[in-house]
Design a protein that fits this description.
The protein is globular, with a radius of gyration of 21 Å. The chain has two domains: 210 residues, Spore Coat Polysaccharide Biosynthesis Protein SpsA, Chain A (Alpha-Beta Complex); 110 residues, no CATH class. It contains 13 helices and ten strands. A five-stranded mixed beta sheet has the order 3-2-1-4-9. Strands 5, 6, 7, 8 and 10 form a five-stranded mixed beta sheet that branches. The relative contact order is 0.11. The longest helix has 28 residues. Helix 9 runs antiparallel to helix 10 and helix 10 packs across helix 12. The chain is α/β, with parallel strands linked by helices. Helices cover 47% and strands 17% of the residues. Keywords: Transferase. This is Glycosyltransferase. It comes from Ginsengibacter hankyongi. GO terms for molecular function: transferase activity. InterPro entries: Glyco_trans_2-like (IPR001173), Glycosyltransf_2 (IPR050834), Nucleotide-diphossugar_trans (IPR029044).
Length: 326
């Protein structure tokens, strides 16, 4: 058996059933489905067991785990030669595994594989296509496009060798809510060789209140801190990545400084330890490491300047929340 499709889940409900049905309907049947159930209480586990399908391998957790702990189990379970990870609310088209098998045959030396995909809403309606991707992409090219906000990436749809996944350490649980954990994994795996992408559409990624969207500003910033440490480390190992960081680092930091300043601002003050000013100071320290020879003054950006001003008082924070509702 060549492929393992890995599904971490906790109370997946109807979405998980739709996801599993799409997996079991693959035109290429050379796979097993590894389910990492995290103490589901909504009938998900019982439904999976009732299928009595020999392709399904269920690993039940002995106690409730955090999302980070459950996904960390991927590294320790037996897997086939190639693995792909899937969110319980995403859907594979019937051609997914066949397209991946063909892509692996075409690019046997690639270290990561992907295809194009559709975004869908909560009801399964197609919203749009993903942004187009090149067939062959190096780690530094992927990072450059990401830092310029010119590429999209999800945790679903990537195919990799299980040995490479384990050697890298897998999805790293140090990232709060696993934010940026998948980006770090993709960059690390691409660094072994390159990513090959099929132009075929082979899966659907569901957009709704994802973990990243509902994570508060402080937790998101902590995850970003880990990711920045990672890419700086990669820059020390790879000259092309180092050049990407020097060229696009300032733009990248300003983008996230603004985004997180607003995320912090909308987080109730009693639910966070940092202020927008603290965040800005943090990003200045990032810039000193990432782009030490470039001026970095976030307050020159209007939206960052306003966020800092509004965060100084209760009235300002309430005004911001009111404006967000309009």
């Amino acid at each position: 058996m060549k492929f393992s499709i890995i599904l971490p889940v906790k109370n997946g409900g109807v979405y998980a059933k739709e996801c599993v049905d799409s997996i079991l309907s693959q035109s290429l049947q050379d796979f097993n489905l590894i389910v990492l159930d995290n103490c589901s209480t909504d009938g998900t586990l019982e439904w999976l067991q009732s299928l009595n399908d020999p392709r399904i391998v269920i690993h039940q957790s002995e106690k409730p785990l955090s999302i980070e702990e459950n996904w960390a189990r991927i590294k320790s379970v037996p897997k086939n030669e190639f693995i792909t990870l899937i969110g319980h609310d995403d859907i594979l088209n019937t051609n997914y595994l066949q397209v991946m098998a063909d892509l692996i045959q075409k690019h046997p030396n690639a270290s990561l594989y992907q295809s194009h995909y559709h975004y869908i809403d909560g009801d399964g309606k197609i919203l749009r296509n993903c942004l187009p991707m090149d067939e062959v992409q190096q780690a530094h090219e992927f990072l450059a496009l990401y830092m310029c906000n010119l590429i999209e990436s999800t945790g679903t749809g990537y195919m990799m060798r299980s040995g490479d996944y384990d050697d890298f350490g897998g999805i790293n649980p140090v990232y709060n809510n696993l934010i940026f954990a998948d980006f770090a994994l993709w960059i690390g795996l691409m660094g072994l060789s390159y990513k090959a992408t099929s132009f075929d559409v082979t899966f659907k990624y569901r957009i709704h209140n994802s973990v990243s969207k509902v994570t508060n500003g402080e937790a998101y910033q902590q995850a970003f801190d880990k990711f920045l440490e990672f890419i700086i480390e990669q820059g020390g190992k790879n000259e092309k990545i180092k050049q990407v960081l020097e060229r696009y680092g300032k733009r990248f930091l300003l983008y996230f400084c603004e985004a997180l300043a607003h995320r912090v601002l909308k987080t109730p003050r009693d639910q966070r330890k940092i202020t927008v000013k603290n965040l800005i100071d943090k990003y200045k320290s990032y810039a000193a490491r990432l782009v030490p020879h470039q001026d970095f003054i976030p307050e020159k950006e209007f939206r960052i300047k306003i966020a800092k001003l509004l965060d100084r008082s209760i009235v300002g924070r309430e005004l911001f929340l009111l404006m967000k509702k309009l």
